[in-house]
Specification:
Length: about 80
Amino acid sequence: MAVAEARAASHRAGLLAANKLVELGGTSATDRAEALDRYWRDVRTHTLHDPVRWKYHWIGAYHLDGRQPPRHGAL
């Protein structure tokens, strides 16, 4: 459960940080010289390949009902 909670938190924090970086840098953040948009692309790739939807579901079920998640890698 602790790993799932950490991954869910890092998902949110990573996207927020990368979005703010591009937002604060403006259009120049995507220039080839700066290439700050790569951080957004990297975080987005990681979050798409490890979706947190089921992590939220099982984290909630664990804390509300005490149900353990399945052991087949969905979490």
